[in-house]
Amino acid sequence: MTARILIVDDVPLNRWLLEAKLSAEYYQVATAADGAEALRLARAWQPDLVLLDVMMPEMDGYETCRRLKDDISTVHIPVVMVTALGAPEERLRGLEAGADDFLTKPVEYDTLLARVKSLVRLKRLLDEWRLRGETARVLGLVDDTMAQPAIAGARALVVDDWDPGAQIVQDALSREGVLAGRAASEAEALALVATVPFDLVVLSLSMTEQDPLRLASRLRATDATQDIPLLLVAEPEQKGRLLRGFDLGANDWVLRPIDGNELRARARNQIRRKFYQDRLRADLGHALEMALTDPLTGFYNQRYLLPHLRGLLASYHAGGLAVMMVDVDHFKQINDRFGHAVGDRALREVADTLRSRTRVFDSIARYGGEEFVVVMPGAGPQEAMVAAERLRLSVEELAFQPERGVVHSLTVSIGVAFSHAGVQSAELLLQAADQAMYRAKNGGRNRVETAGTEWC
Q: What is its EC number (predicted)?
């Protein structure tokens, strides 16, 4: 997996060494000698990861990281801070600035590659959601604001069979406002994640009765849990298991003895990233819903109708399928006499009637200006004709009042077509219903007609 990596260090030899190692792994590498240059390159080049030295003149790594995370064009880029300062307070300061990890010089090559692969993998996933969400925002389908989310009230699961160790993690998370549950075994953890929507899993690699990496693998292999951030807790001598955990999809790690502030900062960053991904996913879902539905009636539109009808035709091998084309009679007269706002209100009342008089598993789409399509899976000719007559009568009985004291009669003309195992064309079925509907109009309106036998 190749990626673009930006190395930021004021010492040329450090830049050269890191560039040589990463280039040997076929990563694309760019370098910057100070924070200002790093900010310009990050905005223009959009790297997949920034390796950022802490000790630099003028603008140090902490301030550079803070500015990267405050810029909407670079906030999504993972940052790994690299420094000779290994004190806990320095790591905490970097994490508070928004860094995704903090490596101490001299950097262990295996650890560096493991973190690069893990963070790049996560960024690629977020990029997919982000690009889809950006398209939706450009089209005006979702809000373009993305505030920094608070994590109070988030849910975390601590998996550890050592009571004191689990309690330390739970206490640290609770000070951040995170609701932390506990599981002492793999079976207990799997049962909890199947029922509770957790925002973080903190997994101890020191469990004695079971292999925690097997649980990590199962979490990543399950659709419902594969996107939950996974934070590993390890002993200093468990480097090999940590690296294996990252290969399996872990997101972050902390070593014992646990520094509560560092754990809180790492947990906070992971939960915020999950909230960010959840927001992107929700935006996309909202955009798709808006793209496939009619805003006036809430029904599906033509963009949804045809693929849906094709899928039903392909799946109903033994049963039938009925399609109704419903057209509001003399609708232009309503617009001309009372205005388009009243016409919209008339369409909504007809739509509400259709919605309340059809089965829960029937589909309704707005097909045109005053035309609707009702799709009835599994319905035969007799059942569909009874349903169409019921819809016609229900609309006729509406007491529509375009103005106070004025009642205007609403009626619909309905054409019904049927499909059986041999018919696979959604377009032909809609054409048949449409022609039957026009026969109903030509026959005097406010009536139901069926397609001829050649369509059945």
A: 2.7.7.65
